[in-house]
Every structure is written in structure tokens, then in C-alpha cells.
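Human: Respectfully, please carefully check these C-alpha cells:
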Amino acid sequence: MNEAKKIITYNVNGIRAAIRKGFIEWLKAAQPDIVCIQETKAHPQQVPVELFEELGYHHYWHSAEKKGYSGVALLSKMEPDKVIYGMEIDKYDREGRMIRADYGAVSVITVYHPSGSSGDARQDFKMKWLEDFYHYINGIKQERLKLVISGDYNICHKPIDIHDPVRNAKNSGFLPEERQWMSEFLDSGFIDSFRYFVKEPHHYSWWNFRGRAREKNLGWRIDYNMVSNPLEENMQRAAILPQAKHSDHCPVLLEMNM
């Protein structure tokens, strides 16, 4: 496989709600090859999956045990060689946070990093997850050098990635220790594909529902397609797609040869 493929990451904030808001029509128009979905908030039997099948997608789901919470999915026009659900770490897998799909030498991962905004306990959980995820991915890299890790990281990396870095400096998602983790993760052998192509400010992928934040573009860039260094030359283009409005997030696109 060497032709350019469209990979999109999208936190849909509830797949059933997104479908009601026109997600299927958008999918039909956008024609991505792989869609990494986060926050499905549903089990596949609760979703009209035939709508995806009619558009030619294979679909894979890793749902949280808790109803209406978390969950990831992966839609793919190409059938993967292999699909792996979760990290084999029970406390994370119960929350449905990761799927890996292998396509030849390339692996695509959809991941939903925890949010720490609800309080100290979840922030501690998030920091422990980040540590464990880092080690897990570096373990995978021993065998799978070509990785695309797409998802909601719930972290803005730099001041350019958030509308008000000063007032958010002590908020989960822009804490120094989270940003340091992101720097170390990138330094371990990954490329922030959007920033690779787009250097300008005011590009965000999430907006608070309150205060007309999206209308004013007062957002956070917390959704990423991270690409391992051996795939650098495969990358063709990256873009954020704020015109898609099925969620408080928007899709983030990577075009790359696979």
C-alpha cells in the first residue's frame, strides 16, 4: 500500500448524538479511509452500524463497561491484518480507551486519554495512564516501528495550542507536568503531524459548549495524529476541520502514504 490515505481522528462526544447531528452524511462526503473515533459512549449493539457498512467501512469497537462513558472505535475502508483491543491493563481496558489496527508494516491506533478535569482523583489517574501509555507504546515500537497514534490526548502542548495560556496554566489539560509528558513523548520518536505542516496560531480542535466559545474560536488543540519518525516522509498533508459540527470537538485530518 503506497497511495495516500486519509486518516481522521474525531472525538464525537457520543456516536449516537453525532449521528443525529449528521455524522453519517459528513462521513459520506469526506470519504476518509480510516476514522479513529473517541468517546463513543455506546456499545456497538446500540449503534446503527449498518450505516457504516453501507459506506464500505469495517468497524471495530472497544466500549467502556460503564454505560454512556468513554469508548473508542475505528472505521476502516481497508480490512486490517490484525486488530488489538486495549492495553492488557485492566483498569484502563474497562474504560475502553484504545484499539490498534495493523496494515502491513503500519499500525494505526485510536486512543482516548483520560481527562483530569473532574478532580484530583482523575488527574492522578490521568498522570498514571500517561506514564503507562508511554511505556506501552515504547514496547510496541520494538516490533512495530511505523505507528500512527490518533486521538484525544486531553493535553495542549504549547501556548500556541490554547486560546488563553496564562489563565489556563493551572487547569487540567495545560498543566506543566502534562505538557512535559507531551514533550517527552514526542522526543521518544513521534511527530505532531498538524504542527509539522501548520505553524500558525488559532487552530483548535475543542471548544467549551459555554459562552459561544466555538463561535469566538476560543479553543484548545487536544486532538492529534501522532506519527512515528520512520513515517515522516509518508506524510502529505494535515488539517483541522472545524466546519464539521457534530461534537464539541472537530475532526483532525492526516493524509499519508501507506
About this structure: DSSP finds seven helices and 14 strands in the chain.
